[in-house]
Amino acid sequence: MQKSSFDQIASSFHPLIVSMIKKFHIYKDYDEYYQIALIGLWRAYQKFDESKGSFSAYAYTTVRGTILSHLKGTILYEERETPAEQNLLSLNEDHALPVPLESEIIKQHIEHLTGREKIYVLEHLLEGYSYKDIAYKYGVSTGAVKNWGKAARKKLKASLLQE
Fold this sequence. Notes:
Largest sheet: none
GO molecular function: DNA binding; sigma factor activity
Number of domains: 2
Oligomer: single chain
InterPro entries: RNA_pol_sigma-70_dom, RNA_pol_sigma70_r2, RNA_pol_sigma70_r4_t2, RNA_pol_sigma_r2, RNA_pol_sigma_r3/r4-like, WH-like_DNA-bd_sf
Shape: rod-shaped
Radius of gyration: 26 Å
CATH class of the largest domain: Mainly Alpha
Domain RNA polymerase sigma-70 region: 11-72
Number of helices: 8
Keywords: DNA-binding, Sigma factor, Transcription, Transcription regulation
Strand content: under 5%
CATH topology of the largest domain: Rna Polymerase Sigma Factor, Chain: A
Pfam families: Sigma70_r2, Sigma70_r4_2
Distance between the termini: 80 Å
């Protein structure tokens, strides 16, 4: 491959970049991801070693990896930041604390649950913690927390139907 200017390479890889962005269903921040793809193409252009294969295959892999890395980072950022924003918004709402009578009714119905099922009812249903938060707190998988919930709901339903 003869050394071409980066502008020529960028224009020749334009269809690839556009198709890759569409493939990942990126519509919201199209221009940002196009620039990220160009950065990936630039890295491929700078690091390419002709003795190791074709440039197009290397460029495809590098551009794809760059886009995916940025997508992953964006998703992780949104997962970390969004719950905090929701908590701040929920502070502004008027939340009435459970009336002592309601607390007593809840306590009566969860007496027969196991410790983990009680954790699910109290922390997920009443406090609003996510499966992920509860799983992290108790060192178990989110699937385990979901199973606690499934068992708790089944027992609570049976308890409520008996009354």
